[in-house]
Each structure stands twice: as C-alpha cells, then as structure tokens.
C-alpha cells in the first residue's frame, strides 16, 4: 500500500505542475473573468444616448421625455440648438419630428457617438404617438383606443413528463437548463479528452524511456495502473475544488453588481444545486475515469511517446461522438438519442444533457449511471490484464497489431497457468 501511494503522489505532483493541466484549469477561469470584466466595464461606463427632439409640437416632445430610461434621454431643443450641440458632440443625435399630415420623423446620429440610440425603442415610442394622433383624428374614445391597441393574450407554459404525468416548469427554468446543458457538453468533452491524453502520455513516456522496466522491478504493474488512475481522479477533484472556491469567492462580489442584479430575476439557477446537477457530476466523474482507463490501455500499446497522438485517436472520436449527439439532443429527443444515452462512453456526455433538458426521467438517468459504473468496473479489470501483459512489449507495428499481440500473449499465459 505504501508503494501504491508513492506512485499516486508522484504522478499527481508531476501533472499538478504540468503546463497542460494548469492551462486546462486556468483557461475557463480566465475566459470567465474576461467576460465578467467586460460586463462590469460596460455596466459602469454605459451612458444613455442623448437625443435632441426638434418639433413644433411641445406636447410630442413632452410625451417622448416621459419615456426616458437607461438607454435613451430625450431633450426638446430648437433646430439651431440641436445642430450646435451635435457639432460639439455633446449629444448623440437629432430626432426631427413632423406632425402633419401624420407623425413622421428623421433621425441623424453621430458616427463616433459613445452610445448608439436604440432605434427599436425610438420607433415604438413614435408609433405609440402616431396611434394616439390617428385615434384623435378618428374621434375614438380612450377606451376604444385601448381596445384597439391591446394585443391578443397568449400564455406559455412549460411542462415535463414525469411518471406519465405533466409537471409544470417555469419558462426561465427551460432557459437555464438549456444553458446548463450546453456548458456541460463542452466541459465534459474537454475534460475527458485532456485527462485521457495526459494519462496516455504518462505511460508512453515511461515506456519510451525504459523507466517502466525499473519501476516494475519494485512495483507491480497492477499497483502502478491503479495508482495512476487514483492520481488522475485526485487531479480532477482538485480542479473541481478550485472551481468551487473560485465560484464562491466570485459570487460574493458578483451578487452586488448592478448588471448581475438585472439578470438574476429572469433566470432560474435552481438547476445548479438540484438532483440533475448531482447526477451530472457523477456522470462527469465516472466518464472521466472510464476514458482514463481507455487511455491507459492505449498508452500501454505504444512503443514510444511519438505514437501517443495516433493512439489516443479513439478517445477523441468517442468524445466528439458524444458531443455531437448531445448537440442533437438539444434539438429533439429522437430514438437514436435515447438508445445512445445508455451506451458506455457515449452516455456520460449524452444522458446528463437529456436530463438537464428534461427529456428523460431520474429513473432512466439512474439506470444509465448504473450501466456506466458496471462497465467501468468490468472494463478496468479487463484493461489491467492487458496492461500487465503489454506494458513491457515494445511494438512498432501500430496500436491494432500491438493489441492483437498482447491478446495472444495473454492467451498463452492463461494456457500455461492451466497446464
């Protein structure tokens, strides 16, 4: 057991300091910091567009001023005053309004204005004024005008099917689940690919430098195998812990920022601490370990470090397959998606997305998770046998031929044991 932890510690500390692991951990944090910084900067520095209203009808100008908000501020000026301010670049633009025969407008805006006016809001305000003018010309009462402009009512209700029954879900929950599923898909694909290549590189480096022969003289191949898997798991846990601490510290600051306060009421973040999130984390851990075992198998089949990129191609292909199927799942839950969400290697990416999108039940996700765990256990012990047989075989024939050679050696050893 002491040797097991020595190997685990050595592999863990070596990769903890490696540039590939540090970039994997820091890249999302840096990207998120940049996005938050940009949002904070624009939130602190954004100013409403200053629009001069030139019209011969003061009532129109006053009506527009009542619509002032954080995006547009209207001010009633004469044509001369407006032109002077525009020349001095102290206003964003000039809105010239004619009231006869009906309300029409022309807007001139500075090309280099710090803040551009929202034309859709401007059109909405002018359309409302034009409607009021037309109603007055037609001698409609306020009640008739209100009845005319009131849009048809339509309600949207989001439901999910649980145990054959409709269960109401909030619309904001669907949006949050979609964002969660998209982020989860990318994150899982990235992690399993990088960690798989990291472990395969570790084993190939030891084989190529012949260090493996020295290590096996004091530590068994099985002990090394499980120690390396443990080190990968500890690296994964370390990464998640870093994200948890960084997220907690960031939230203490973010929740007090105005641009976050504006978004939060319309977003349902309950998915982040729900059963869905817990199951997604379990799939994430199981998936990473499953791909790590596959990486150990592929790494043991190469003769040197130069063959690693070719050897780990199956990891990339399986990860991409799960990624594309997860993207397809966001468009609809077809039979193909349902079947693949129970197949090992693919289900660790696909099933959490289906669950987040409420396309499946917790029971179905639990069954898929159980399949993933059983497969991981069986696959691990099978790979251990191959690893023990092939870790000292240096074949330049390629991965497929090396696997066949390893299988023949394993069969011969079993035959000798029986005899």
From TrEMBL:
<keyword id="KW-1133">Transmembrane helix</keyword>
<keyword id="KW-0812">Transmembrane</keyword>
<feature type="domain" description="ABC-2 type transporter transmembrane">
    <location>
        <begin position="21"/>
        <end position="380"/>
    </location>
</feature>
<feature type="transmembrane region" description="Helical">
    <location>
        <begin position="21"/>
        <end position="42"/>
    </location>
</feature>
<feature type="transmembrane region" description="Helical">
    <location>
        <begin position="178"/>
        <end position="204"/>
    </location>
</feature>
<feature type="transmembrane region" description="Helical">
    <location>
        <begin position="310"/>
        <end position="329"/>
    </location>
</feature>
<protein>
    <submittedName>
        <fullName>ABC transporter permease</fullName>
    </submittedName>
</protein>
<feature type="transmembrane region" description="Helical">
    <location>
        <begin position="271"/>
        <end position="298"/>
    </location>
</feature>
<keyword id="KW-0472">Membrane</keyword>
<dbReference type="InterPro" id="IPR013525">
    <property type="entry name" value="ABC2_TM"/>
</dbReference>
<feature type="transmembrane region" description="Helical">
    <location>
        <begin position="225"/>
        <end position="251"/>
    </location>
</feature>
<feature type="transmembrane region" description="Helical">
    <location>
        <begin position="362"/>
        <end position="384"/>
    </location>
</feature>
<dbReference type="GO" id="GO:0140359">
    <property type="term" value="F:ABC-type transporter activity"/>
</dbReference>
<dbReference type="GO" id="GO:0016020">
    <property type="term" value="C:membrane"/>
</dbReference>
<dbReference type="Pfam" id="PF12698">
    <property type="entry name" value="ABC2_membrane_3"/>
</dbReference>
């Amino acid at each position: 057991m002491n040797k097991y932890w020595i190997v685990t510690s050595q592999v863990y500390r070596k990769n903890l300091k490696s540039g590939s692991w540090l970039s994997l951990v820091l890249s999302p944090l840096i990207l998120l910091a940049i996005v938050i910084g940009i949002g904070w900067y624009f939130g602190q520095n954004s100013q409403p567009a200053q629009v001069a209203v030139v019209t011969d009808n003061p009532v129109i100008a006053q009506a527009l001023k009542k619509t002032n908000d954080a995006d547009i501020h209207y001010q009633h000026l004469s044509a001369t005053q407006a032109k002077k301010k525009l020349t001095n670049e102290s206003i964003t633009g000039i809105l010239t309004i004619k009231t006869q025969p009906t309300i029409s407008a022309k807007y001139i805006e500075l090309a280099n204005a710090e803040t551009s006016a929202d034309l859709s809001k401007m059109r909405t305000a002018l359309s409302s004024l034009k409607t009021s003018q037309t109603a007055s010309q037609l001698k409609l009462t306020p009640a008739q005008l209100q009845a005319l402009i009131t849009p048809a009512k339509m309600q949207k209700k989001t439901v999910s099917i649980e145990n054959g029954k409709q269960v109401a879900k909030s619309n904001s929950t669907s949006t949050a689940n979609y964002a969660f599923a998209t982020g989860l898909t990318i994150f899982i694909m990235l992690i399993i690919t990088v960690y798989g290549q990291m472990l395969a590189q570790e084993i190939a480096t030891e084989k190529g430098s012949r260090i493996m022969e020295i290590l096996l003289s004091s530590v068994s191949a099985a002990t090394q195998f499980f120690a390396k898997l443990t080190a990968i798991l500890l690296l994964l846990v370390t990464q998640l812990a870093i994200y948890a601490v960084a997220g907690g510290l960031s939230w203490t600051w973010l929740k007090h920022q105005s641009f976050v306060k504006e978004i939060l009421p319309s977003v349902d973040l309950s998915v982040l601490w729900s059963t869905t999130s817990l199951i997604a984390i379990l799939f994430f851990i199981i998936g990473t370990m499953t791909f790590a075992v596959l990486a150990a198998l592929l790494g043991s089949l190469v003769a040197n470090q130069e063959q690693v990129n070719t050897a780990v191609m199956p990891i990339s292909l399986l990860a991409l397959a799960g990624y594309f199927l997860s993207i397809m799942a966001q468009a609809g839950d077809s039979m193909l998606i349902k079947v693949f969400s129970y197949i090992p290697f693919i289900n660790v990416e696909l099933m959490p997305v289906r669950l987040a999108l409420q396309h499946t039940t917790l029971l179905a996700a639990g069954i898929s998770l159980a399949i993933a765990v059983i497969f991981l256990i069986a696959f691990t012990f099978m790979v251990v046998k191959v690893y023990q047989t092939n870790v000292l075989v240096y074949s330049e024939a390629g991965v497929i031929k090396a696997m066949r050679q390893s299988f023949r050696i394993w069969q011969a050893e079993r035959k000798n044991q029986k005899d």
